[in-house]
């Protein structure tokens, strides 16, 4: 049982459990009295919070959506900052980042279901590769305003983060870009239904 008290293992468990907290689901239930798992896309993310809550309480929907984005991003960010303060190495930090995103997408509290990982991925990337992430956030914002398709703007923003990190040679300091690619793959994979709808021209806009 000594491995459970290993420095890295403790932070990996903390990252996964923190990532698993379904803030969107909790906020919608507490403040809007709706279950977003049973409505809309069934996702626990900010877009579905906005879409579902807007049906009954438009004035509250945007506030809860913004709160969901912030809290989902902070899930990974806070654990990373604590680990950095404790002297964790770069490899451990990237392990924490991957597990926080995994926790959000495959939550232990939701029978391994969850969200799409965009906000949590943004939170961990902002700590570990800040400049590429800010570029990606700008791309997401611009395309979100122009296209008003949440999934597409999110995927374009994520792609911009990866490209910017490679162009700027924003090294991960772990000898490989694999952790960044793993996070991107998880987010892309969770968006497969959205990608199929985009190809078919059936993806809904956020109005």
TrEMBL record:
Pathway: Lipid metabolism; phospholipid metabolism
Annotated transmembrane regions: 6-28, 64-85, 91-110, 122-143, 149-168
GO CC terms in record: plasma membrane
Keywords tagged on the record: Acyltransferase, Cell membrane, Lipid biosynthesis, Lipid metabolism, Membrane, Phospholipid biosynthesis, Phospholipid metabolism, Transferase, Transmembrane, Transmembrane helix
Subcellular location: Cell membrane
Protein name per UniProt: Glycerol-3-phosphate acyltransferase
UniProt cross-references to InterPro entries, sorted A to Z: G3P_acylTferase_PlsY
Functional description taken from the UniProt entry: Catalyzes the transfer of an acyl group from acyl-phosphate (acyl-PO(4)) to glycerol-3-phosphate (G3P) to form lysophosphatidic acid (LPA). This enzyme utilizes acyl-phosphate as fatty acyl donor, but not acyl-CoA or acyl-ACP.
Organism: Halarcobacter anaerophilus
Subunit field text: Probably interacts with PlsX.
Family affiliation: Belongs to the PlsY family.
Reactions it catalyzes: an acyl phosphate + sn-glycerol 3-phosphate = a 1-acyl-sn-glycero-3-phosphate + phosphate
Pfam families per UniProt: G3P_acyltransf
């Amino acid at each position: 049982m000594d491995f459970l008290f290993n420095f890295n293992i403790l932070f990996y468990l903390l990252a996964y459990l923190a990532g698993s907290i379904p803030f969107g689901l909790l906020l919608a239930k507490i403040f809007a009295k709706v279950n977003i798992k049973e409505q809309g896309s069934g996702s626990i993310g900010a877009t579905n919070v906005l879409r579902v809550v807007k049906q009954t309480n438009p004035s509250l929907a945007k506030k809860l959506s913004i709160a969901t984005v912030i809290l989902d991003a902070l899930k990974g960010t806070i654990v990373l900052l604590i680990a950095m303060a404790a002297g964790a190495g770069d490899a451990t930090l990237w392990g924490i980042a991957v597990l926080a995103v995994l926790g959000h997408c495959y939550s232990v509290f939701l029978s391994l279901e969850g969200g799409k990982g965009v906000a949590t991925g943004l939170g961990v990337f902002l700590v570990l590769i800040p400049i590429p992430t800010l570029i990606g956030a700008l791309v997401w914002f611009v395309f979100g305003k122009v296209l008003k398709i949440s999934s597409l703007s999110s995927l374009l923003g994520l792609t911009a983060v990866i490209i910017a990190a490679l162009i700027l040679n924003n090294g991960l300091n772990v000898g490989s870009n694999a952790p960044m690619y793993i996070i991107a793959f998880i987010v892309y994979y969770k968006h497969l239904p959205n990608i199929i709808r985009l190809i078919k021209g059936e993806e809904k806009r956020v109005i």
